[in-house]
Design brief:
The complex is a heterodimer of chains A (about 260) and B (about 290). By secondary structure, chain A is of the alpha/beta class. Helix content of chain A is about 30%, strand content about 20%. Chain A has a single domain (about 5-255), classed as Glutaconate Coenzyme A-transferase (3-Layer(aba) Sandwich). A 10-stranded mixed beta sheet of chain A has the order 4-3-2-1-5-10-11-12-13-14, sandwiched between helices. The radius of gyration of chain A is 18 Å and the shape is globular. Chain A starts with 6 loop residues before the first helix and ends in a 5-residue tail after the last helix. In chain B, a hairpin with a 6-residue loop joins strand 9 (about 140) and strand 10 (about 150-155). The longest helix of chain B has 13 residues, at about 255-265. Chain B is globular and about 55 Å long. With about 290 residues, chain B is of the alpha/beta class. In chain B, helix 1 crosses helix 2. Chain B has one domain: Glutaconate Coenzyme A-transferase, CATH 3.40.1080. The chains are: A alpha/beta (about 260), B alpha/beta (about 290). The interface between A and B is large, with 60 and 58 residues.
Chain lengths: ~260, ~290
């Protein structure tokens, strides 16, 4: 056990713990990618990581900067074309976990990565959905990881890039989505799971040293808590070392340029 | 039937003002040199198509050559937002481009439908997604066998596809290895295609399943070593991540952008690309 870690490290490590050895995970870049690779390097060595660039069963030694870095292809079991990736592997129902980040998230796990403001005259034009709209409906479950902020966790998102639980309850079923949808939210402060009936995200566990006020101060909706609230197990030495080594390898690899 | 041309000729013979054009590449093998040649030739009023418009699309938009963009993710991969694209959408500089926005799955299906000669792509997509409300090209179709409601979008059939590949042989067959993206579908769905290559060899020596586009599917082959930089070409050079990071600064200011384009694109030729990869060769690493 170690007391000396950052909230970011905590978030990544807690997210990694949620992944199982037999999961087939469609990995988003950034925090999800780090979490998935920590899982692979610790308790889930056989996890299948899939990136939308077509790399299946990849085991990168460093974290990719982009979704299609060479490292992903060189360490993959196989690399398929992008149409095949979306058709056979995602739409075909082969993915157990879609792991997404979000610019804006609401309490029902709906995600916006398209625009802040009005779609035709946006205040901020974001990159857009990429693979997310279909990951959100085709992966068996969706895990979300993001740093908490009032800008990011909002009562109402500006645009439904990908559908979580809609307005809650049975909304997914009502539009004929038969996958489970968002089933886990991991932030830098807490672990959240949707309520069984309402589907609203409820805090299940506060990370070590985090108070309810700290969670509410960085969340735009009124936070609800489980009756049996727990304290998240801090990172182990092995988890921390694995993450820091991975980040260090990545840093060295990305700085190697113009050496001669 | 393919011709071996200089990049200047490859672009001017195939791309016309007002065309619909894609420069495809999924992180790997992005045809930067071709886009720069289009910018030098000032071929405008383009409808540009791409799953992942990144730096070159930011450049085409910032130079005022774009009328409309069809896309599914407009970002600088691993870095952030596209600042010229944002300036166009948010402030109309230098012009406000029209957009037709999709998801990756939709775009991939649309290219495939185009390559397959079908009028539309049918897939299970956009469930609960708001793009349905803002993109009139996203429609619903009912499966005649099961009654399932599926999504239909029009096939993509660009006038011209530009891609970059590792090798061509003397006849003009093209070989692609590594992350394949949607380039094969982009070429086969387009009316014309221009392929820049790292190398022209007598004969391929490769695995029987390596991706190859036969010479008779390609309009022009142009030998441009380094032509994907700062993207990468597996077996030749690595992705220049530092340049992608620097682009964020260049693109953040209109004047800095304009003078950067003058110096690094307008005043250059396709030959500059081989210099840009000198320190990125794969063997330098070992």
């Amino acid at each position: 056990m170690s007391n000396n870690y950052t909230p970011d490290e905590m978030m990544t490590i807690v997210a990694s713990r949620a992944l199982k050895n037999d999961d087939v995970c469609f990995v988003g870049i950034g925090a999800p990618s780090a979490a998935c690779n920590i899982a692979r390097l610790t308790h889930a060595p056989d996890i299948t990581l899939i990136y939308e660039s077509g790399t299946i069963g990849t085991a990168p030694n460093i974290l990719p900067l982009s979704i299609g870095d060479g490292e992903l292809c060189e360490t993959a079991l196989t690399t398929v074309s992008v149409p095949e990736m979306f058709r056979y592997w995602l739409q075909g129902g082969r993915i157990t976990i879609g792991f997404l980040g979000a610019a804006q998230l609401d309490k029902f796990g709906n995600i916006n990565t398209t625009v802040i403001g009005d779609y035709s005259n946006p205040k901020t034009r974001l990159p857009g959905g990429g693979g997310a709209p279909e990951i959100a409906s085709s992966a068996k479950q969706v895990y979300i990881t993001m740093k908490q902020s009032l800008r990011g966790m909002v009562e109402k998102i500006d645009f439904f890039t990908s559908f979580g639980h809609g307005s809650g309850g049975k909304d997914r079923r009502s539009i004929n989505i038969d996958t489970e949808g968002p089933s886990l939210l991991i932030t830098d402060l807490a672990i959240w799971k949707p309520d069984r009936i309402s589907k609203e995200f409820i805090v299940q566990s506060l990370h070590d040293g985090v108070t309810r006020d700290m969670v509410q101060d960085k969340c735009g909706w009124k936070v609800k808590y489980s009756d049996n609230i727990e304290v998240t197990e801090p990172p182990t030495h092995l988890e921390l070392k694995t993450l820091r080594d991975l980040n260090e390898r990545t840093k060295i690899a990305n700085s190697r340029k113009d050496t001669d | 039937m393919t011709k071996f041309l200089s990049l200047e000729e490859g672009v001017s013979e195939n791309l016309k003002t007002g065309n619909q054009v894609c420069f495809e590449g999924f992180t790997h093998l992005i045809p930067h040199a071709s886009a720069h040649e289009v910018i030098r030739q000032k071929i405008g009023r383009l409808t540009i198509v791409r799953m992942t418009p990144d730096v070159i699309y930011d450049q085409l938009i910032g130079m005022g050559l774009v009328k409309k963009m069809i896309f599914s993710y407009a970002g600088n991969p691993g870095v952030g937002l596209l600042r010229r694209f944002r300036d166009s959408i948010e402030n109309g500089w230098p012009n406000k481009i029209e957009i037709e926005e999709h998801s990756h799955s939709a775009m991939a299906h649309a290219y495939e439908a185009g390559a397959a000669g079908l009028p539309c792509a049918i897939f299970r997509g956009y469930k609960g997604a708001e793009l349905r409300k803002v993109n009139s090209n996203i429609k619903t179709i009912t499966c005649p066998f099961t009654g399932e409601e599926l999504t239909a979008i029009p096939a993509l059939n660009p006038d011209v596809a530009f891609i970059h590949a590792q090798k061509a042989d003397k006849k003009g067959n093209v070989l692609v290895e590594g992350i394949l993206g949607v380039q094969k579908e982009a070429v086969l769905s387009s009316k014309r295609s221009v392929v820049t290559v790292e190398e022209i060899v007598d004969k391929f020596d490769c695995h029987p399943n390596t991706t190859i586009l036969p010479y008779w599917t390609i309009s022009a082959i142009c030998h441009v070593p380094g032509g994907a930089h700062p993207s990468y070409a597996r077996g030749y050079y690595k992705r220049d991540n530092a340049t992608y990071i620097e682009w964020d600064k260049v693109a953040s200011d209109r004047e800095v952008f304009s003078s950067w384009m003058q110096e690094n694109v307008i005043n250059e030729t396709p030959k500059i690309f081989q210099n840009r990869i000198k320190n990125l060769k794969e063997e330098d690493d070992e």
